[in-house]
Amino acid sequence: MKWIAVCALTWVTVFCGLTPAKAESAGTGEYRAVTGPCHFRFPRDHGPHPDYRTEWWYYTGNVTDERGRAYGFQFTFFRNRLISDATRGRWPVRWSRWRSDTLILLHMAVSDVARKRFVHHRDAARAVPGIAGAGFDDGRVRLFLKKSELIIQDARHRLVGFGDALSLDLRLVPEKEAVFHGREGYSRKGQAPERASCYYSFPRMAVRGRLRVGEQWVTVRGSAWMDHEYSTAPLEAGVVGWDWFSLQLSDGTELMLYELRKADGSVHPVSQGTFVRSDGSKEDLERGDFDVQVLGSWTSPHSGAVYPSRWRIRVPRLGLDLTVTPRLEDQEMVGEGADGIDYWEGSVAVRGRAGASAEEVSGLGYVELTGYSGPVFALQPESGKDDGP
After folding, report:
1. Average pLDDT, whole number, for the chain?
2. How confident is the model at residue 213 (pLDDT cuts 50, 70, 90)?
3. Is 217 helix (H, G, I), strand (E, B) or coil?
4. DSSP per-residue string spanning 344-389
5. What is the CATH number of the domain that holds 34?
6. Where does the record place the AttH domain (predicted)?
7. Which of 81, 206, 284, 353 is most buried, most CB within 10 Å of its CB?
8. pLDDT in tens, 312-332
């Protein structure tokens, strides 16, 4: 759940000299709003949706090399549209291919579990020829930023990323069909109808390829999770961050949960999740269906933020009782370069019980934690009033 793209608009305003349109105008022709079922059609909807303000393609995975050493990886492309149709009149009249209204960002990281190393890389550029872009043509999706790129074609995904301290070249193939979160992909993030995103996932993908940490390339294989999400409205005022979980269990099931945290420490009632059965069918989870208990904490030596660091997750009606533990404590993406946002994004291990017979399960996954080094930026409604509870 990469709402960090919305937060990056703070930096976009400075970088581009533009003022983004306010969220509450989302339904009046400035940007398109998500207000109901998304009716995905593939392969087209794997590609960009430029009528919406922000969008992300997000991959996380856990892999091992030929010697059995474990790694986690994150690879995310963001697309942010800088001006809306309504504000286009303030855009300079003279046309140029270099006068782009789209920003492309890349976040990627590798967790080298055996060596207890975490390295990450960020970059950003306007979508201009030869530098960055996002497109769909003849069934092929391509996003690129300098030498890094994401290609989706014929149900195959290729991730190629280059940074100073890490690189990766991975090929992914879905092992389950896409899962649509919420009501046909309509995923609520607030009380107002447009406080929502179109959101689907490939909850289990086979991964093969190679990655580099420092100078060493290794051949790896394992399993990954993919999210694709697009929206116009940011989070409600008063939401300071979120905790997001994607877990792949040994019985062939998967669990996604997110909790939107409010300033008073409570959890927003639209927080929700999805349980994916081994046959690929899903069960939607509302806030009252699950409980997330924090069991420990970790203080970052980089940002000073105090993050939760171990959890017990219970979903009583599914018989799930899981303990989730970071495979490394320090997996913080410290805000450098383009967007300056600190967040924790890391590989985790899972142990517990599942089902009516309380069978033992294990697994791996990823957790994203935001808002612990300061509230996540959320645009205020035009009226200055919050539409949240």
Report:
1. 87
2. very high
3. strand
4. EEEEEEEEEEETTTTEEEEEEEEEEEESSSSPPP-PPPTTS-----
5. 2.40.370.10
6. 54-232
7. 81
8. 999 999 999 999 999 999 999
Q: Give the mean model confidence (pLDDT) for residues 87-100.
A: 60
383 domain-assigned: no
Provide the pLDDT for residue 187: 94
Give the torsion sign (CA, 299, 301, 303, 309). negative
Task: Determine the structural domain holding residue 103 and report its residue range.
Answer: 4-370
If 0-12 CB within 10 Å is exposed, 13-18 middle and 19+ buried, where does residue 385 land? exposed
CB-count exposure of residue 18 (10 Å: 0-12, 13-18, 19+) = middle
Helix (H, G, I), strand (E, B) or coil at 82: coil
Count CB neighbours of 224 within 10 A. 27
Dist. CA 123–CA 145, nearest whole Å: 8
Pairing outcome for strands 196-213 and 186-188: antiparallel
In-domain check, residue 376: no
Residue 150 lies in a domain: yes
Task: Give 362's pLDDT tier (boundaries 50, 70, 90).
Answer: very high
Comparing CA positions, the residue from 200, 270, 258, 198 lying closest to residue 52 is 198
Query: Whole-angstrom Cα distance, residue 336 to residue 296?
Result: 27
Rounded-to-integer distance, Cα 370 and Cα 200, Å: 21
CA–CA dist 96, 83 (Å, integer): 16
Rounded (5°) CA angle 296-297-301: 155
Residue 246 lies in a domain: yes
Number of domains making up the chain: 1
Beta carbons within 8 Å of 302's beta carbon, 6+ residues apart = 330, 332, 334, 342
Region 80-109 average pLDDT: 74
Least confident of 94-103, 164-173, 279-288: 94-103
Kindly list the distances between the CA atom of residue 189 and the CA atoms of 3, 101, 114, 185, 259, in Å, as whole numbers in the listed order. 10, 26, 37, 12, 10
| Percentage of residues in the chain having pLDDT higher than 90 | 74
Tokens 């769909």, located at residue: 136
Q: For 264-290, what is the mean pLDDT?
A: 95
CA dist., res. 299 & res. 219, Å (int): 33
pLDDT at residue 54, rounded to an integer: 94
Helical (H) or strand (E) element with 9 = helix 9-16
